[in-house]
Amino acid sequence: xxxxxxxxxxxxxxxxxxxxxxxxxxxxxxxxxxxxxxxxxxxxxxxxxxxxxxxxxxxxxxxxxxxxxxxxxxxxxxxxxxxxxxxxxxxxxxxxxxxxxxxxxxxxxxxxxxxxxxxxxxxxxxxxxxxxxxxxxxxxxxxxxxxxxxxxxxxxxxxxxxxxxxxxxxxxxxxxxxxxxxxxxxxxxxxxxxxxxxxxxxxxxxxxxxxxxxxxxxxxxxxxxxxxxxxxxxxxxxxxxxxxx
Length: 245
Prior knowledge:
Blueprint: E1 3-13, E2 16-27, E3 31-35, H1 42-50, E4 55-64, E5 67-68, H2 74-79, E6 82-85, E7 92-96, H3 97-109, H4 115-129, E8 139-140, H5 146-160, E9 164-168, H6 176-189, E10 195-199, E11 213-218, E12 221-226, H7 229-237, H8 240-244
Parallel strand pairs: 3-10, 3-11, 6-9, 9-10
Antiparallel strand pairs: 1-2, 1-4, 4-5, 7-8, 11-12
């Protein structure tokens, strides 16, 4: 079974050390939750795995499909089946959701899907996720609410069908209704062929997407791991008890 393996990963941004030896394994077919207080380095881990140029890797490896992906460009990582949904998706005026997704599909899948075939695929995924058909004609994220932006990210996930998806604070800024829609969407997409790493502060998204494993990060290191019961303990007691340990 394929798995994403992070080994002793150290990274910094603008000279400030953020990751201090992260060790993490996420298997295909499992949902893994990464939790922790603000500033713990959770989002940094996602960006480093996908190759954000702002971050400097000082030590360690990220192994996927038999190679250290830190040695290849971000677009090549995407072609290998890695995916990152952003906490704050960018607006791209003038580019429709449909055109953006078809371009991304062709690039990642290294193929050329016809407009007719793609429209069929897009409609199928939009119906699955209960996304209004008008979304496809709108410019990407322009004028979108927080919930609409996150639903568009999940639509992108459904279209690209990556083998390893990192969801960076997908629950950020969502009301209860949008949260349920996003949670139901992820549950509709997930499969034994996709591993999912959910980065979050809170329990609420994990009420809809049940994790198989839970890891807690503090000061750039994973300090505690467990099952879904760990989520409930964190919700009741916060992170202070882990920091004290």
